Amino acid sequence: MDLFEAIIGRRSIRRFKKDMVKDDIIMKVIEAGTWAPSAGNLQSWEVVMVKNSETKEKLVTAAYLREFLAGAPIILVLCANQHECGASYNDRGVELYCIQDAACAGQNILLAAHALGLGACWVGAFDEDLVVQALHLPPGLRPVSLIPMGYPDENPSPPPRGDLEEFIHYERFK
Length: 174
Ligand SMILES: Cc1cc2nc3c(=O)[nH]c(=O)nc-3n(C[C@H](O)[C@H](O)[C@H](O)COP(=O)(O)O)c2cc1C
Hints:
By secondary structure, the chain is an alpha+beta fold.
């Protein structure tokens, strides 16, 4: 798939077929995450792969009852490794770089999933403490996204995008 086709054609998918995704496909998707840029190439992110129904239900609770999460055969939980990044970059590593690392990896993961015929959605609305408890995350790991993933069972229209001119500021902001 052409890169621009993938970028423009990717959608947030919230309805999934029951079919399980083969492990080698999931590994390929996660490997795409490792090729994202990261501060100092530390790749300060971790991913917890959840397939177990009980754990999925805990994530649904953490995500304010977004039931569609449990409808996915797999949920990837992306975490920023504040501990690792802070050791090299102090406060900026803890507060910014590791979050950016995880976000860059996440976007690669979403695009790779789409390129392989999968659907996924970045879910950022959740109670972090409940996710930490559900997944036994140690201190220094901050969950940044729940990514339900599976074969899509919907084909949503693209939500509108802003005009380029709304984003770009020439030479200075105003
Ligand atoms: C930081 C962030 C947080 C998001 N949180 C949620 C969320 O909590 N629940 C949800 O259903 N979608 C969430 N989304 C997905 C957006 O709603 C979606 O990307 C946006 O509407 C554009 O649609 P598209 O991804 O199909 O282009 C989030 C996306 C981002 C980048």
